[in-house]
Amino acid sequence: MFSSSTVPSTKLTGSMETPEIAKKFKYWQIQTMAVTWVSYAVFFIMRKCISMATLGIQADLGISKDQLGIFFTLHGLIYGVSRFSSSLVIHKFIARNFLACGLVLCAICNFAFGCSSTVLVMGILWLLHGIFQGMGWPPSARLLPYWIHPQELATKMSIWNTSHCVGSVIILAVGGCLASLGWRNVFFVPSIAGLAAAVIVWIFLRDTPSSVGLPELTFGENYEKTKDKKKESIEFKKFIKKQVFKNHYIWILGISNLFVYVLRFAVLDWGPMLLKEWKGLSLTQGGFIVAAFEIFGAVGIITCGWVTDKYFGGKSPRVCAIAMALGSFFLFLFWYMPSTYAWVSLIALVLSGFFIYGVQSLVLVAVSNIATKRAAATANGFVGIWGYGAVIFTGWLLGRIARLFGWDTALGFIILFGVVGTVLLAFAWKAKATGYEELEMGSNVKA
Q1: What does the alpha-carbon distance between residue 391 and residue 96 come to, in Å, rounded to a whole number?
Q2: Which of 195, 285, 293, 333 could be 348's S-S partner, Cβ–Cβ 3.0 to 4.6 Å?
Q3: Domain residue spans of the chain
């Protein structure tokens, strides 16, 4: 797997040819993927537990849909800003420390939120929670490209990306039971999971192959480290500017990500309430349907990643455009089907998750490969801030539309975003699989 004969374009520093080194590299690759997978799943459990507590909070504290929507919107926006800010500075920190710290701080906020009873205090705590949640993705986005070859990134990072689906499924599946014992328990239990995950990260995670005595994987990147920190910083900023902020494909994928997340968050944040009020299901039933949406999303993530590497030569944007079109189509079927075909409608909703999550995952894979591993964290942060801008539409605005005009109108509004997102992704159809090709051809700015 790591030999130059199987991956012709890979240049490996040191020797990766001996079985002992290859075996050790594989061990640490799997461990890195597993630990970051678990940590991000727990981040999501702590983030999305509020979706299963909304009805309890509404009944207990008298909070309206508009106010709950504001919670979703502000949390999402501050998370997007935090995630982007963290992606700009993560290269200055030890990823393990950064990740563990984020888990602990989120756990504290979850516990304190569960103890609160006033809208103001809860609002402040949820904003802080959004800030600390932004410490979860950037360290992972930085680590994975150092351990996974770009020709395998779509498949392996797609497997890794099931973490947030599993986290959502767990809280959706057990959240109803926890809420039946009191909505505060929906926050207390995830906070314990957050502390446990922080311990796992601290014990088992390491940053790069060289940090455990292994040679680094390199892909046409010929930059040399220097003791002149100022010079290195200037060179790094030039590289980031070229690979991320002046790359029109990164911009296309970033803007498209907003539309992908509108579809995703509309179902994930409002799904249990929508299914209860519009389809007449119980909260527990609604939670299981949205959990099925997430499960099929996880399958879609893996399938779309495999298809990308197997049949599209790693060109993720092409699969993104196709999957976005299909996800929007199935969401339309869910909306269009009359009540006499209730189960067909619910199956369509679940199937939409298969394709929506496939797009969401591959957008991140695409920017990681196009920006190259050195700029992957920044590119993911940039694309992520666009994605979490979706809460402007799926938070307060969608809650207000649902209250004034009903869920039928609100969902039609969401489907429109799917159509526009498909068109935007089509503009990235001609993007190359990776940015390493240009670097190997002799870029003016060294990697």
Answers
A1: 29
A2: 333
A3: 19-210+228-440
57-73 per-position pLDDT tens digit: 888 888 777 777 787 77
CATH 3.30.470.20, applies to 19-210+228-440? no
| Sign (positive or negative) of CA dihedral 296, 301, 302, 305 | positive
Which residue matches tokens 């997340």?
A: 261
- Helix ranges (H only) for 241-315 are 248-278, 283-311
- The 8-class DSSP code of residue 216 comes to P
pTM over 0.70, yes/no: yes
Report yes or no: 136 and 102 within 8 Å, Cβ to Cβ: yes
Q: Are 219 and 9 in contact (CB under 8 A)?
A: yes
Please list, residue by residue across 61-85, b when 16 or more beta carbons sit within 10 angstroms of its beta carbon and e when fewer do: eebebebbbbbbbbbbbbbbbbbbb
233-285 tens-digit pLDDT: 778 788 888 888 899 999 999 999 999 999 998 998 788 788 888 888 887 78
What is the C-alpha to C-alpha distance for residues 272 and 68, in angstroms, rounded to an integer? 14
